[in-house]
Amino acid sequence: MNSLLANLLTNPVAVETLREGLPRAFEMAAVEAGRVTLNRRTGLAHSTTGQEVGVLRERVILGFLISQLGEVNVQLPAPGASMVDASIAGQPLEIKTVTRRGLVTAKWTSDNTSVDQVLEQFAFTSDMLLVRIWWESFQDSVYYIPVEVLNEAAINFPDYLQSQRGTNNRGVKIKDAYMRRVEGNDNTIKVPIPWLRSAQDLPSPFVRYIRYWTERDF
Question: Could you tell me the pTM of the whole model?
């Protein structure tokens, strides 16, 4: 267990900051990843959230960690250098965000050959910080799961991975039954979050760029 991260997520002041700020920050991420698409059959436009929202949510979490622990304790990997999202005081950490009981991705894959390799070779090598988003609810949402917990559960639950084969398999997933086991482990730190939506309108991300050009802020 990473003592620095464990101490942070059991610190009342830091936890209260996380509770107050996380829902709005995730709303902002959703707005930034928003897009408008046209239904070719009906001709009607509707808004959707792009897949990049996952990356934006990770940045929200990383921003929180850096603000609380300092840049000296939160190292970001170079692009493509590692599958982990950060190192906390030298210990690797993966960040996962899903909505409700959505399946957690073990590793993204692009073809069936890659799927087979992941299923044969995958092993947990880092701690996991998991955020489950439960809009209009208040319950355990942020889980710090040490790598020891992940590996111990994997021994007793060897068939914990699943995949969808095909040209667009969208990665190898971790079974929900396994995740429930590690989330409920006594050594997993859990933080409840009140997932209340902001009453204020969030501006489109285009606003700041429009302002940039109209005010010639360069």
Answer: 0.87
Q: Which of 24, 35, 179, 169 is nearest to 110 (CA)?
A: 169
Nearest Cα to Cα of residue 122 among 192, 185, 184, 174 = 174
Alpha carbon distance 93, 91 (integer Å): 7
Structure-block tokens of residue 168: 């667009």
| Closest CA relative to residue 100, chosen from 133, 137, 51, 142 | 133
Give CB contacts under 8 A, 24+ apart, made by 4-9. 4/69, 4/73, 4/88, 4/89, 5/65, 5/88, 5/89, 5/91, 5/93, 5/127, 5/129, 5/144, 6/144, 6/189, 8/65, 8/68, 8/69, 9/142, 9/144, 9/189, 9/191
> pLDDT at position 165, please?
65
Tally Cβ neighbours within 10 Å of residue 98: 16
| Residue 43: pLDDT band with limits 50, 70, 90 | low
C-alpha neighbours within 13 Å on the C-beta side of residue 88: 27
**Residue 205 banded pLDDT, cuts 50, 70, 90:** confident
Domains of the chain, each with CATH number or no CATH: 3-104+126-160+174-214 (3.40.600.30)
Question: Poorest-confidence range of 8-12, 67-71, 157-161, 169-173?
Answer: 169-173
